[in-house]
Amino acid sequence: MQWNQTQHDLREGVERFGEALSDGYLQRDHDAVFDPAKWKQVCDSGIVALPFEQRYGGLGQDLLTTMYVLEGLGQTCRDGGLNFCVTTHIISTGVPLQRFGSEQLKERYLPGVCTGATIGCHAITEPAAGSDALAMRTTAMRDGDVYRLDGSKTFVSNAPIAELFVVYARTHPAGGPLGITAFLVQRDTPGFTVGSSIAKMGLKSAPLAELFFDGCVVPAANIIGRVGAGFLVLDYVMKREILCSFIVNIGEAEHRLERVRVYAKSREQFGRPIGAFQAVANRIVDMHIAIETARMWLYRSAERMIQGKDVTVDVAISKLLASEANLSSALSAVQLFGGNGYMAEYGLEMQLRDAVGGTIYSGTSDIQRNRIAAMLGL
Fold this sequence. Notes:
This protein has 378 residues and is an alpha+beta fold. The chain contains 13 helices and ten strands. The protein has three domains: 5-118, Butyryl-Coa Dehydrogenase, subunit A, domain 1 (Orthogonal Bundle); 121-228, Butyryl-CoA Dehydrogenase, subunit A, domain 2, CATH 2.40.110.10; 231-375, Butyryl-CoA Dehydrogenase, subunit A, domain 3 (Up-down Bundle).
């Protein structure tokens, strides 16, 4: 990819915040806490405003530029949970609002999304449905000028800290993709409850929780798009979520690779640097190839998306390659650092825990393989 000076400047502007954002990240991971001060710093960098129109306070940047800057965030910020909060906020709430929201909704909510003052998230997964979004049981029944939502959601990233929730619910009992609608729900809406934070393996500074809807009253004006178009909204969002979330992971993996390379040249065993041993060198080469391949697919998919091409398979391949490259490189880094890699103070075991999540969220690796297989006619 060739980047112009404006794009370089935007990325460098965000990268200047990297050291400050990383400060204390191991303690935050240990304590499993989200730090509002770090969120303010990341918002001050302007990164959460990147893809949104200038009239709402955004920077008006395209998908490729947004990804390029997010990759820089991954390279310089060691707090993987904070990075995850950023992409969740941008893509889950801001993107569907800008693309499908009414002018009234955009004028009311997008300025807060652009500054980060109003944190957003989306609610898709349910306890019984898992990866099968079409099996969701949360319902939204029309009652005059409002809808009444009943049901629950789980594994909702950013939920404990969010003020805005894009909630996908069933509006037609017959089921199918045309029976789902997307609603914008405020945290203080009567009948809506956010559960306690759920402890998890990695990304510990990015809180998640369950949501409960008990006759939650949402104005019909808060529908994003139109009734029955929720699955189309979700498909639009999820493609961009994969591209933006996993380019951050690639940035993180690139930083990890450089750290391993330097270590392999300086760490000596049996009278020579460990990088001189073919087994070590080959492992590092494999890390490099996997990261570069995933990076290429992510940007290639974004280019094809901008061109209006069908990128269903492209995005599935990109997600599969990026998540597994991140996981394999994190495991290799731990192994190459040996005992030091296993110690919490080096941060590599944390990155390994974080990387496991990438093979699960946004569609598991098996789901991506199933999707690719289906497009191959299998």
